[in-house]
# Entry
Amino acid sequence: MYVTLEYYVTAIVCLITAFVIHRIYYKEKIKNQSSIAISGIKWFGFAIFLWGLGALINVILVQLIDIETTNKIVIYLGVFISLTNSLSILLSLPSIEHQKERNIVVRLVQRFSEKEFVTLFSGVLAMIAFVFIVTSYSNTEISNNFIWLIDIPISLIVAFALLNELSKAFANRAMKFMVVPCFLLFVLIVIAVTHRIIPQDKVLGYIDQEFWSLLGVIAGVSFKFLFILLFSILLYSWKFLSEKELKQTELEVLLEEKQLLLKQQEKLVVANESHLDTITTLQKRLKESEVKINVLEESTRIALSDRQKEVLGNLGACGASKSYTEIAEAMNISLDGFQTHIYQIKKVLKISGADGKEQLIAFAKANELLKYASIQNKNTD
# Structure
């Protein structure tokens, strides 16, 4: 009765849990989360699914087909489900994230790809299982406890590796108190395994048969439920840690961008200061050039005598209305003397042509020589 109850409870709880976990797996896969973590969810869910599937098959065999639980077919099926479950858990262990060193079992799993490890694991155990089946199927002297020996070493190794990795993961998440339920899980697995390999007639002298059967059922159901509980806690802590790491990553990116912007700002400030220095230098050079230009302009200005300036001033002031003769008389000089001055001025100014007089008048006005006009001053007086 207890065994049948174990099958029903395990089938219902594990299949529902496996369905929920695989929904989470597909949801996280769409989000493009870490491939290792996603793979871990997949294999954890598959391990739980195998427990539920094995229990469901046992319900069908025992309740519907009416096969005894001690039948070798049921035992072989149980061993196969247990080994496949161990394989799934082994493949999920690398996804348990922590900063500490991996144990030797996980390092061994990580040496191979999933496909390679499944092939290696299946090949080795298939050969061992074949020997056990051939030896035990037709031999009535071999007990079911002996058949379970195929699974026992693997189950204990997986249980130890699982305990080690879960403890490190919870410690890394500041949840060291979870080491206690992890150790309890290991103890329950050991009890369940021990219950399988110890013949019932060997313990009847020490323990009541009903209690022994109940102990096996409780251990078998409890370690599965505790495994589901620990995985759920680990899953949600992983989700929280992933979100925290995502925010931390975003913060680091923003800080890097800030540092980059600060460096660019420093470069711009330096460039701006350099440009200001360049502008200042150019302004200084411009002023120096202006000074040189002024000096050169002064040096290149046409040098005229005072008398020539007076002649040009008088010509500019009244040349438009008076002839050379009239201007010469007004200046009290001879016409020849006046024309000599005009000739010298034209030579200096390089003026020639029939309109020489007009050019001289324009030059006198343009260069402010009218102030030297003596005729105008005399008229003003």
